[in-house]
Amino acid sequence: xxNHLKTTAAIxxxxxxxxxxxxxxxxxxxxxxxxxxxxxxxxxxxxxxWSEEGENGENGYTKAVKRLNNDNVLRSLLDLSIAxxxxxxxxxxxxxxxxxxxxxxxxxxxEGISFPEESDVIEKAEKAxxxxxxxxxxxxLCYSPVSIDEKTVFYxxxxxxxxxxLCDFTEYYAAGKTEEKSIVNSGLIDEGLSFFKAGGRTAxxxxxxxxxxxxxxxxxxxxxxxxxxxxxDFLHEVGKTEFQKYKGALLREAELDDAGICFxxxxxxxxxxxxxxxxxxxxxxxxxxxxVADRNIPLILCTDHNRALxxxxxxxxxxxxxxxxxxxxxxxxxxxxEALKGSGSSLDPNELSLRYRLNASEIAAVWKSFLExxxxxxxxxxxxxxxxxxSIEELMKGEEAVLGRVIYPDIRLxxxxxxxxxxxxxxxxxxxxxxxxxxxxxxxxxxxxxxxRSVSLLISGPPGTGKTMTANAIAGxxxxxxxxxxxxxxxxxxxxETEKNLxxxxxxxxxxxxxxxxxxxxxxxxxxxxxxDSRDRYANTEIxxxxxxxxxxxxxxxxxTNIKGNIDPAFMRRIRxxxxxxxxxxxxxxxxxxxxxxxxxxxxxxxDFDYLSSQFDSFTGSIIKTVFLxxxxxxxxxxxxxxxxxxxxxxxxxxxxxxxxxxxxxxxGKYAYLC
Length: 675
Prior knowledge:
alpha/beta; Rossmann fold; 30 helices; 52% helix; elongated
């Protein structure tokens, strides 16, 4: 405690003692030894120094008095509160002699006003809000208990600290003390600055990507510090019973520091899940947002949706600053170029801006994690692969369990054995993905295609013909992860739940920049049926929802089905590429067999590929791989190199597995003797 405040406490207690003597209560301090000691220590030098500091206006106390308009009643109220804060025994002294602790009634009494007018009490209470903690709705107001909290004490002691009550969910931003540069969204920053400089009260920053960054730049432009409050954490910490206490502390924090307030964390889950804390936006506005704006505290609200959080109709009071849904290609390139500076990475900003449709804050978060992981990694790493993994992990922090699995493919299209015309179409799909941002953004075709920007591929064909492998290969060619949807977790018997699950799937894929893969897609994308009952109607509603969601999706979707005819015709019109896989012919089967015999597999030289590819014409690529794996296992188990006897044995096992009427050795042809 500064000596000035100690002297202030001693002087106000002396004044109280004098009033009590006039009331016939002598030696009122005798029962309170700590207060008596304080009074005894007071000397003329302390009083002279106290008086000189007050005249020069050199400390937090004199600033507080000035904030109270040099009002004598409020100054006495401040002195009383200081005495009680530092000397708890003073509260007992007041209660013993006056029947209550610190309040406006006692402050009026110290100034010789025994019966203040109600209008005077209301006026003083209004002025006192920025310094004191009290219930301004109490009746009678003059008897409402008054106190000062930690923040007011910091202010009185010239200490720039945040109230400990708020520390867990508050970040104090000092304006103008950062070197962060504005690379994108400068127009929104300028609009926000102009709004506040013209007297605006509340700005809402809506959308995704850099909301708090924009808020900090606005703070810099206003040269005003800001308190950044996580609203979700604030409400969880406060609950219902202490809301007024925390709100008062927050308002005092902003007013005493001459700072603005920025609430963030106002996202869709918050608005839907936390209704037990704040029932609706109207209540949140009335209890929290409006009181901040009414105190002329600059207020910024960061939310991920465009709905206005305040009902203020005057555009001079409220402004909704809406972030673009997607950054333009050139803006993403600028951000990646800035991130790559001095990193020593060979990553190409052009390629990154095409591959990752991330907003500004996501790029910053992903890059920060990438540098940390790369710095801690042992040996050399592929930066492209590392960035892919880091981006998915970083972007999905805090998300619920996903309805599928993420795969990092290491195969390429050259590993997929398909006919040349199909390979050409698959290469077209990859080219379309890589050039999507160029033709839509740089060639300015996005205005002609506001919907349907996704690159979609339908692969049909019998089981085992390579549909799943192709999906993995496409993701591998694009250096992206594959998000394979688990349909058993998607389709729900309860009405509306399937749509919710699908929305989570699409949001995950969009945010994590993965290739979205629906295997056995006809379970979801099947033909709509005639409506015979309510279940049919809701099933058709699910399909209609899917039509809309696919149309609005901005990513890569691969769907696989065994029978193309099972897919609803409305989907077919929205699918950009369709390929049909057939069972491999003899030449294709030969290529598949030969591709498996790599140098790393010890095998005999006389493998009969003509026999393997012609004798078993019903084998698909998947079956061939299974047979080869089983043959390798048999050879390795016998500590032998792979030969025809192992392959024929594995073939026999596969044929017996699928035979319903018994197995004939004739099926094995000329190598039947090996079994």
